[in-house]
Amino acid sequence: VETSPGVVCWREARPIEKVGIYVPGGTAPLFSTVLMLAIPAKIAGCKEIVLCSPPGKEGAIHPAILYAANLAGETRIYAVGGIQAIGAM
Q1: Residue 42: domain span
Q2: 47-59 pLDDT, tens per residue?
Q3: Which of 14, 15, 37, 59 could form a disulfide with 21 if both were Cys (CB 3.0 to 4.6 A apart)?
Q4: Residues paired with residue 22 on neighbouring β-strands, in sequence order
């Protein structure tokens, strides 16, 4: 679209190369959050998806979250929660 003489504006859709997703911990594993965030990122063409989720009492991420992350093709998964995880991503 030419907005004024010699000035052309356009819209270009490009995927973000790296995306960080945060999956909250707590009493129930929110594996659906993994799918709701990772699948659209994959479809959009993001090359790298980093997942952070707080570890449980045993010190590991819940197996259901890890399984969903594997289904979505995520390879970088960190057992980190809270604002530290958001800041690190």
Answers
A1: 14-88
A2: 999 999 999 998 9
A3: 37
A4: 52
- CATH code of 53's domain: 3.40.50.1980
* Element spanning 44, H or E: helix 31-44
Average pLDDT for residues 65-72, to the nearest whole number? 95
Per-residue pLDDT, 68: 96
Q: What whole-number distance in Å separates Cα of residue 28 and Cα of residue 26?
A: 6
CA distances (Å), 8 to each of 12, 13, 14, in order?
Answer: 13, 17, 19
* pTM for the whole structure: 0.80
Q: How far apart are CA 75 and CA 72, in angstroms?
A: 9
Number of structural domains found in the chain: 1
Ramachandran angles phi, psi of 13, nearest 5°: -95, 120
